[in-house]
Amino acid sequence: MDTLLNEIRKRRTVRAFRSEPVEEDKIEAVLEAGRWAPSGKNTQPWRFVVVRSEEKRKQLGELVPQRDMIATAPVTIVVLKHIPSGYDELKDAQGIGSCVQNMLLAVHAQGLGACWIGRARDPEVEAVVGAGEDEELMLVLPVGYPAEEPGEGKRKPLEELTRYI
Ligand SMILES: Cc1cc2nc3c(=O)[nH]c(=O)nc-3n(C[C@H](O)[C@H](O)[C@H](O)COP(=O)(O)O)c2cc1C
Prior knowledge:
By secondary structure, the chain is of the alpha+beta class. The protein is 41% helix and 16% strand.
């Protein structure tokens, strides 16, 4: 438990990436961690598009805020919601949140870094990644070897967040 908690604490958002490629098995492990996330009624409403091609990364970079991250990260994982699999907007979003947190931890555990970009929800981005009519873009996740060492991170104290009754 200590190890897991330490890794959860040490995970930080990475916003600058080295250009070296990321091994395919590492990306697969990240996707696998996402696949095993919990979801309401086990509907697994997430779908993934792994963007590796230089051309697509360039197109994405032109549309997404914080374009430098997309341009420099060797891989961007796009997380879509498969609308027919969903059943409740809030619970679908919660499930996708748990999926992405699993992915972020798998990224961190393998010495990689990533940034959750939630402001990329745009029909043009959906078109670039080939999202279907029955899919909705939720976020994009540039992934790569970190070119920065983010600080320790800050969190509110537990006493401020928790009430025992
Ligand atoms: C739902 C959500 C949306 C986020 N959107 C962005 C974003 O658009 N751009 C960005 O740089 N970071 C984004 N982040 C990363 C947060 O800024 C980051 O997780 C937070 O500041 C805590 O830092 P840490 O991840 O290093 O602990 C997002 C995180 C979440 C969970």
